[in-house]
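Q: Could you fold this chain for me?
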Amino acid sequence: MKKVFLLSVSILLFSFVFVPFYLSAQQNQDIAPDPECTVLLKRRVELKEEKLKKIEDAYRSGICRYFDYNVAKTAVVDAKIVLYRYTGERKELMTTLEEKLNWSKEQYRAVEAVYKVGATLSDQLIDAELAMIDAELELKQEKNLQTSIPPLNQKAGNKTATTDDTKSDSNGSRYVAGIARHFFMQGKHNESLQKIEEAVRLDPENANAYAYQGLGWAQFNLGDIEAAKKTWAKCLELDSKNAAALNGLGWAAWRETKKDDAVKHWEKAIAAAPNATAALSGLCLAYEEKGDKENAAKYYKMWLKVDPKNEEAQKGLERTE
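A: Sure. Below is the predicted structure, expressed as structure tokens.
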């Protein structure tokens, strides 16, 4: 298990240090992936796949342990996740994250079976369950972040930005905001807050409100709800239909137990962007908690229309229909 821990640490260090930022090429044309970095990341995947093949052959020949094969396969999957996040290959990223979750579930079942016959320690079972939980959280967070934060060159409601919205980044605000988004996606909220504040200083009247939208989320995730609310209010002054800001105000109100206000904000958010699953999940939660199964089911169906494989939405619809 020590090997697994060291492997996980090395992967995290690689993704935070080697990859300076990643933004989806489909979502953000202002900051494209560096071709040289992409080549290196692809080569890294190839080498890990070659290593996995050798270890798999050795395992089948009885030369090495299944544990070694498990570690090598996990390393390949994690290397692909780093690559696809950097290049912005959304479909491949989600497929690989799902593969990681399925693999971790398979490993958990295998360890559980061995544990039940007394052939392994409880610590190994705990580690296997932790790996499964981490994989599921990673997949859920990726889904939520991609739907709750509109891309830099996109307005609310999934409309393509105008020429004015995508004009050259003369003051560097967009570039800095992009780096802030990278930190946010990695869960590094202090670093994200610092960069997004810098972007706001560079362009206080940011026409597409992206900087204020990101600043609000950074403040919210650091627990400064009041500051986040003020920032999102500024964002809505610039873009009254900014779904991310409306969604954020909804969750801020929910945290303050102002549940009716939360519903109003979320309904505005999905009116602006019908695929905003973070707002849809909030509406499902609110109406189900009220006992209003009809409305809860309606929003669960909308959620599933956007994300058909979402288990939480599927279970929610089963409860409320």
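A (continued): The beta strands are 154-155, 159-160.
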